[in-house]
Amino acid sequence: MSYLDRIRECNAHDLSRFRPFLAGGVRVGWVKHGFAGRLAAFPDAFRVSESAVVLAPGLDTFAARTAAVDEALRRLAADGLITGWRDEPYPVGPSFRDPPLLQMERAAVPWFGVRAYGVHMNGYVRDGDGIRLWVARRSPDKPTYPGMLDNMVAGGQPVGIGLRENLVKECEEEAGIPPGLAARAVPVGAVSYCHETGEGLKPDVQFTFDLELPPDFQPRNADGEIAAFYLWPVERVMETVRDTTRFKFNCNLVIIDFLVRHGLIGPGDPDYVDIVTGLRRPPP
Amino acid sequence: MSYLDRIRECNAHDLSRFRPFLAGGVRVGWVKHGFAGRLAAFPDAFRVSESAVVLAPGLDTFAARTAAVDEALRRLAADGLITGWRDEPYPVGPSFRDPPLLQMERAAVPWFGVRAYGVHMNGYVRDGDGIRLWVARRSPDKPTYPGMLDNMVAGGQPVGIGLRENLVKECEEEAGIPPGLAARAVPVGAVSYCHETGEGLKPDVQFTFDLELPPDFQPRNADGEIAAFYLWPVERVMETVRDTTRFKFNCNLVIIDFLVRHGLIGPGDPDYVDIVTGLRRPPP
């Protein structure tokens, strides 16, 4: 197995199983054909054709679009189709920089193949010339990817909070990192991918941060989402990423990006160009 | 002006002005239609049609392909079309990891739209909490981009030398960095782009390195390619990249990548996602 296998797994998808989802006249996502059929039951929110799912005409404002879609989604959740409702609104729009056209419950976002954003942080400790990386194990009770390995801190990016503010909040809740220490996290880029799931499509962007921690810092989870933390020599992390699928799919990319930036995967790796390019995919 | 302008300039091209160039049955480049017409005069090397330029049948080995193409190129150089012959063979093939199908004189590579590779190094000095970056000014006598600003060390990647070895050699020749110091350069990734020039297309990859230098280190050029070195506060480098076109086109990307990795361009920049994604383009 190789790092490139992890990148390929994050990007495994077949667009022929989807049709475009349009809002405000622009494509903002992708919907599986079967789910499109379900959406036809909500003509106040969606107009469904063979070629696309389009927001219903007359939904001209952020509030109107959000309300119409929300009503449909709550009925789909009541029917048991959309599960894991979180009451976390995500932005829906053509890009991260443009104002969103509507907001949508996080649990529904992959069903609509809308690009989601998040923050992922590599927490590391220098150890002489070496590096140790903090690894989290997700709680066995988490609705998604229970028990899998994860980055030290990671969280989705809802509406109404800045990226940095969100990172500081997640640092405190997930790992007990005080705000003064979390403020030292350095933004170092982003990874992007397009991953198909049972529900739909995740053409997502994760903003990446590095935080060098003092050797004696001990993370403590406060929100019940993390079952354990491990401080592994980077070589063990590298083997685990390269040779196993124990990490949640997108956390592998965040670690591979760390390894590239810190010279731990170098151009001597025959896959180097494909790895470096593969960490950042334009959306479909 | 913005960082994104620099990325767009590096990627400005119109493939409708080109036709594919195939070797060994695979596309390895792109040729401008006018140049394709000139290549029809060399049927021992090329078969030219409206839709493609293909290596002549029967050229079944690396040596045979290289010799046939070289003979044609030397005649085109003698005719004054291909200028700036350097006697530096570049690899030609479908990817960096695969063995090349032939080698081709560097001066001819953009004419064939063959992907070229190089090494670019950011030399920097820590200054309290700040960073200063070494900037080179290219000699006014250089055949390409004379007098423009450049990264501290940069060089093309010919056949027969490893990337690290090439970087150490360029460090010594271009900036007088001794091998022991150059060995501390950290590989940190790569930038890629697709740039159209008068000759043809440059769908190139530059492997990037960072080297932190002692504050008292003074670069000295030995090969006549650099007219001067400046140690600029990073803020001045940022303004120059963002607001001017004084740097050679691809050096801007190497610096923008440095700024992203060091947190000096952060996700607060509205263009952040486009910048981060734009630094690494798959080849056309």
Notes on the protein architecture:
- The structure is a homodimer of 284-residue chains.
- Chain A has 284 residues and is α+β, with helices and mostly antiparallel strands.
- In chain A, 28% of the residues lie in helices and 29% in strands.
- The first copy, chain A, contains 8 helices and 15 strands.
- In chain A, strands 7, 8, 9, 10, 11, 14 and 15 form a 7-stranded mixed beta sheet that branches.
- In chain A, strand 1 (18-23) and strand 2 (26-32) form a beta hairpin.
- In chain A, helix 1 (3-10) packs across helix 7.
- The first copy, chain A, is globular, with a radius of gyration of 20 Å.
- In chain A, 46% of the residues are buried.
- The mean pLDDT of chain A is 97.
Structure in a nutshell:
Two copies of one chain form a homodimer. The first copy, chain A, has eight helices and 15 strands.
Strand content of chain A: 25-35%
Strand/helix succession of chain A: HEEHEEHEEEEEEHHEEEEEHHH
Query: Count the strands of chain A?
Result: 15
Q: Based on CA inertia axes, which overall geometry of chain A fits?
A: globular
Low-confidence stretches of chain A: none
Helicity range of the residues of chain A? 25-40%
Rg for CA atoms of chain A: 20 Å
Number of helices of chain A: 8
How far from one another are the termini of chain A?
Answer: 26 Å
How does the helix and strand content of chain A classify structurally? Answer: alpha+beta
Mean pLDDT, all residues of chain A: 97
**Biggest interface pair, counts:** A-B, 31 and 32 residues
Oligomer: homodimer
The major β-sheet of chain A equals: 7 strands, mixed
